[in-house]
Amino acid sequence: MAVLPNLRRAIPADALVDTWDARDGWALRRFRWPADGATSRGSILFQTGRGDIFEKYLETFGHWQGQGWNVAAFDWRGQGGSGRLTPKANCGHIDDFATYVADVQAFYREWAASTPGPHVVMGHSMGGHLMLRALVERAIDPDAAVLIAPMLGVRSLFGRFAAPAARLLARLGDPRRPAWKGNEKPYTTETRARLLTHDLERYADEIWWQTEAPALLTGAPSWQWLLEAFRSMAALEASPIEQLRVPLLVLVAEADRLVDARAALRIAPRLPDARVERFGAESAHEILREADPVRNRALAAIDDFLAARAPRR
């Protein structure tokens, strides 16, 4: 699958980046890239992971937009270009994951009402977690959904004690303070690049965007973010996900060193209409930003799924 020229480091000329106000007036940075109206295939809402920006996925957006999909995304509240919720610069903080879900719900309703169907939601990592939670809570009702390396569990040095440790440490000081410094994953000798992708050029794209627009950089999460992440993951797994009827495709990187792939493989069989695509040691966390053999296989799986479960209207 060819890479569109210059797409990875430039906003397309026919795309729009602006802001959208959430229900409480908080401004979220929004991306919209419409397809040619005469060949519209439908509409995709893609949400990134913790600390991400939608620029990291311009290459993939180009793949879908070229097929006739209208593509939209927004930076999560408190990260990227959607402001900060803590006085500590670049710290990714949230009061409650329910706030994220409320933002998705309001955005989805407006987006679905103003774009052609079928409507598909996709989420990477934290975005996958939040999209699944929004589906289970019936906050959104798309025709199909794709979860990419969803954050349904996390890898931690502390194992089953990670959540209690987060609760304790959140209480020992300002819960809005950064939980760690530097690397995406604390207490590891692995580089951030190795945790995310084997493709160093695609990793370099992210660094380029951070250098070009430093205000978009989001660093470590706050202790409160960690605490709410553990709470949300536990609540989601305990929820009646068997009642979900939306068709899902779940892409799982079994060698993922950030999220716990075992959680996704444990939860996916409980979903009544879910297909799982598994990747081995060839893929790190960012499946859609991996080396071409992995990325192309993932895109082909998504294309096949959408052709079968979200056909052109």
TrEMBL record:
<dbReference type="Pfam" id="PF12146">
    <property type="entry name" value="Hydrolase_4"/>
</dbReference>
<protein>
    <submittedName>
        <fullName>Lysophospholipase</fullName>
    </submittedName>
</protein>
<dbReference type="InterPro" id="IPR022742">
    <property type="entry name" value="Hydrolase_4"/>
</dbReference>
<dbReference type="InterPro" id="IPR051044">
    <property type="entry name" value="MAG_DAG_Lipase"/>
</dbReference>
<feature type="domain" description="Serine aminopeptidase S33">
    <location>
        <begin position="40"/>
        <end position="292"/>
    </location>
</feature>
<dbReference type="InterPro" id="IPR029058">
    <property type="entry name" value="AB_hydrolase_fold"/>
</dbReference>
